[in-house]
Each structure stands twice: as structure tokens, then as C-alpha cells.
Amino acid sequence: MGEMKKFFGLLFVLLMLLATTGHQNVHAATDDSLARIQKKGTLVMGNSPNYPPYEFQVNQNGKSEIVGMDISIGKQISKDLGVKLVVKKMSFDSMLVALETGKVDMILSGFSPTAARKKHVDFTDSYYVSKQYIIINKTDKGLYKNKNSFSGKKVGAVVGTIPYDLVKEQMPGAKLVGMENAADLVLALKAHKIDGLVKDSASALAYASSDPGLTTINGKFEVSGDEAGNAIALPKGSTSLTLAINQSIKNIQQKDLINKQYLPEAGKLMNTNTANTSMWHYWSYFAKGVGYTVGISLVAVIIGVLLGAGLALIRIGHTKVWHALATAYVEFIRGTPLMVQVMFIYFGIGMFYDISAVVAGTLAVGLNSAAYVSEVFRSGIESVPVGQKEAARSLGLSTKQTMQSVIFPQAIVTIWPALGNEFISLIKETSIVSIIGVADLIYQLRIVQADTYKGVLPIVVAMVLYFILTFGLSRVLQHFEHKFNHAN
């Protein structure tokens, strides 16, 4: 127990150091922030491309490209700064952490400068101001006039956005339904799971114009100050970079590029998406998602088996210190959510080493799997009768020879089915890596939903693909299981 307490004590100290370092990194940006970006030659932009017309993906000739009003603004800013724009995709609720930990240089993704966000990051001037509309089913058009018409009704909004706060503050009689993805909320609205969906006017009109079953009303929300508009978030203390970007925003507004060029271009590209919304048209998206899912699963399986087997051998050994450390690792990993582990590795370790989202996600899934695999190995080995070990030792076999020739061949019969279940679960668990922008099957599903305005069909395709993967793997595992049983 003493060793375990020391381990958790060291872990706590490490977490505190990470938090302190991250806090220091946030405030390390000074007036050289612009010079550092120009020296680096790139401006990394955090973006969640499922929010048309601000940001979304188009599928042209089998190739995917992120486009939209915010992307056009980002390109103009990078041009003015004399650097190359790099768009880093990730979930909306991960972007603030990404900015604070240095994964991105700015957030340009329909972000509003709320008072809570201003405590952690700096904001540029607002580049676009829109009203807040409520999307409703066209059949309900006569029932609702504004936000006051939804007393006792369910109203949806994307978690972490201005509309989400507005529903809480200015629609007290409504029941708030929060989700992380706008496409899911639109699907819920069309299925009559919610009665209205609050979004900014540009996005709301985009959804309504692309779906004949939807329409919009002006919510007549009261939004004060800068929170009424969208701005670009930058690390705390980025004074020189903020001033430079503000100058670009001023030039964009003076030329009225948003209304004259950026929004019309986004509208045309949205029409391109909705011109062909068949799932076959998006086969490359799903194929890419399957590729990432399978690749991450295979590497994570290797990590999980090797590390898990090692942990199991340590735990059945007699070295107390190593036994305590292995036990602490297994209990800690099993006692914390995989989502938190993914974010910790990507953002936490990322403060010291620039680790990619794919590597971080794969490593997190593999390390998580190892904790469960170790228990599978340990229980399988311990299920072999003690007499087998004693008999082998009496014949003069060493501990290593006993394990290799007597214990493990018998244990594998017990281990294999449980190990197979863990492999199958691993394929499904990889979906969690989409939160840090890994283009797995779930991430691609979200993109197709946003591009085509179809909620159910992309889900069905993803379900079928997951089933094919897991069913095929289960048949292969059963084949080897039968072989093991016949051999014994």
C-alpha cells in the first residue's frame, strides 16, 4: 500500500506540474506573438467544419476540402501576415483547450467572445454579427412567433455556444436539450424530439434553405455587447498578433468581403453539396473513416497485448514494488474515462512534445486496452491448476519453461474468447478519438451529416460498416478458438 500511495502522490505532482506549465504557457505569449508566427511561417487555425456556411466540407471529384466564410477569412488573414494557413480539424468543445495548450494559434470557427471565454483567451474585434434564429418544422410555423412561444417546449442548442446560454437565460419556460453536434439537433427536430433549434441567423437560414421541411423565425433574443458577434480567439497576451489580425478584419469589413464574396461563395459550395447527397457520392469519406478506424485499432491492439501481457506477468510475480505500480496503473486506467485519457495525452503531453492527434488517439486507446487485457491474461493464467505448475517444476523445468510449455498453452484456451471480445470492443471504442479531430468513421459521419443535411442515412451507413468490421473479426477469432480447443 505504501508503494501505491507513493505512485499516486507522484502522479498528482505530475498533473499539477502539467497544469502549472500550461498556465505559464498561456501567459508566455507577449508582444513577440506576431513575430513568432511569421518566423514559423504558418498560422494554425482551430476549426470544427460542421457549421455551414461558416465552415463545412465539400466533396469534389472524390476529394474533401474545408470551405466556408471562416476559411475565407482565415486565408485573407494569413495572406496579410505573409504566412501559410493550416486548418486543424477538431470537435468544437476541444478547441479552447487546444488554443491554451498551443495546439493551434487561433480559433476561427463561429466563436463568440463571451465573458467566460475572455478569462482564458484574448479576442479580436468581431468580424461578423448575426441575429439568433430558431429553426422549426415548417408544419409548426403558425405555432411559434419568437422565443416566448416555447414555454413547456423542448428547445435544442449546441453545447458551449451562445445559443445554448441564451436558451438557459432567456427561455426559462423551455426545456433545454444540449448536444455537441448541430446535425444531431436537426435530426432530433425533424423527428419531433425537440420543438425548436436555436442557431445564428446565417447558419439557421442555411439549414432551412437546404431542407424543405424546415423554416426559421427570428427569436428576438437580447444579446448585448461583443457577444452578439463572432470573433477570433488568440492566446492570452498575444497583443501584437491581435492588432495585426484586427487590421485584416478592418480591411475585410471596409471592402464588405463577407457579404459580397465570402457568404455568396459559401452558398454556392453548399448547393454543390446538396446537388448530390447520395451516400455513394461520399464513399471516399466513409472509406477514409474505415481506414483510420482499422489502423488505429490494429496498432492499439498490439500496444494493448504487449503491455497487457507484461502487466499481467508483473502482477502475478513476487516483486512488491513492481506489483504495486502495475496494480496502480490498471486501477487508475480502469477508473478514468477513455475520453479524458485521450484529451490528457493529446493536450497534456502535447505541452511538452508536439504529438499528432492520430498518434495521441492511438496511444490512448492502446494504453487503455492494456489495463483490461492485463486482467484477461492474469485471470487466464491463474485459472490453470496449481498442480500443473508443481508437476512441471518437479520435472526440472525452470519458471520460464513452465510458463511457456505448460501454463500458457492451457491458459490461452481461457484467455482467447475474452481477448476476442476486447478486440471487438476496441474497434467501437476508437470512435472516441474523433473529439481531437482524428478522421475516424464517426468523424466522417458527422461531416457527411453536415454536408448533406441528412441525419439518419449516414448513421445507417456507419452502423453497417461497424457491423461488417466487428462481425468479420468475430468470425476470424472463432476460427482460431476452434483450433485451440481441438489442439487441447
UniProtKB/TrEMBL annotation:
Pfam families: BPD_transp_1, SBP_bac_3. Gene3D superfamilies: MetI-like, Periplasmic binding protein-like II. Residues 1-28 form the signal peptide. GO terms for cellular component: ATP-binding cassette (ABC) transporter complex. It is a multi-pass membrane protein. InterPro entries: AA_ABC_transptr_permease_3TM (IPR010065), ArtM/GltK/GlnP/TcyL/YhdX-like (IPR043429), MetI-like (IPR000515), MetI-like_sf (IPR035906), Solute-binding_3/MltF_N (IPR001638). The keyword 4Fe-4S does not apply. GO terms for biological process: amino acid transport. It is found in: Cell membrane. PROSITE patterns: ABC_TM1. The chain crosses the membrane at residues 290-314, 344-367, 455-474. Keywords: Amino-acid transport, Cell membrane, Membrane, Signal, Transmembrane, Transmembrane helix, Transport. GO terms for molecular function: transmembrane transporter activity. It comes from the Bacteria. Residues 290-477 form the ABC transmembrane type-1 domain. Belongs to the binding-protein-dependent transport system permease family. HisMQ subfamily. This is Amino acid ABC transporter permease. It comes from Lacticaseibacillus manihotivorans DSM 13343 = JCM 12514.
